[in-house]
Amino acid sequence: MTYLVNVISNAVEGLLRKVKVRRLGNFDIQTPRQATPFGIDSAPMDKMVAVYADTNKKGKPVILGYLNKSLLAANGEIRVFSLDADGVLATSIWLKADGTMEIGGSTKHMARFEELKSGFDQLKTDLNDMKQKWNTFAAAYVPGSPSVTGTPPTASQSSASTASIDSAKIDEIKTL
Question: How far is CA 173 from CA 93, 101, 163, in A?
Fold first, then answer.
């Protein structure tokens, strides 16, 4: 027999999560095991509605799942989320059907460290080159007259930095 039951509380006992539920009335309190997909560990909020099922082993019922109040995933998508103590969304990971992933939100892009470091290192190299040219020019400069020692670098010998961090942007993964 399968029932929709109200969650009262839950606790881990050994390696099992037991969910205390009210089944057929105030005096029918049960503590079935929670069955979940492999690799998923979750604790239900009190007052959630659970799907309770008897098994072929007498006295060994299970909770098969919970009625979700926050359905946002479209066909082919998976959304994993957590709630705060008031039952409000705390955070989520959303694998979307268009091949993107949202971690906590979708307003900002994630970045690849190696590409970001490469762009930063190029900018640092360009800046150090410009500093060296400036220092050479400044050391040769004689106030009040054009420089006479050697040929100091001029603005035309300097070039704009080509540093970029654009390749660090991950369009497929977004966050807060």
Answer: 10, 5, 23
Structure token pair of residue 52:
């309770």
148-168 pLDDT tens trace: 555 555 555 667 777 788 888
**142 and 119 share a domain?**
yes
Per-residue pLDDT of 60-83, as tens digits, reads 999 999 998 888 999 999 999 999
Q: Is the dihedral of CA 86, 88, 94, 97 positive or negative?
A: positive
**Burial grade of 1 (CB within 10 A; 0-12, 13-18, 19 or more):** exposed
Supply the DSSP symbol for 63.
Answer: E
- Total domains in the chain come to 3
Question: Which residue's structure tokens are 């020692």?
Answer: 149
What is the reported pTM? 0.69
Strand partners, 12: 17
- On the 0-12 / 13-18 / 19+ scale of CB atoms within 10 A, 173 is middle
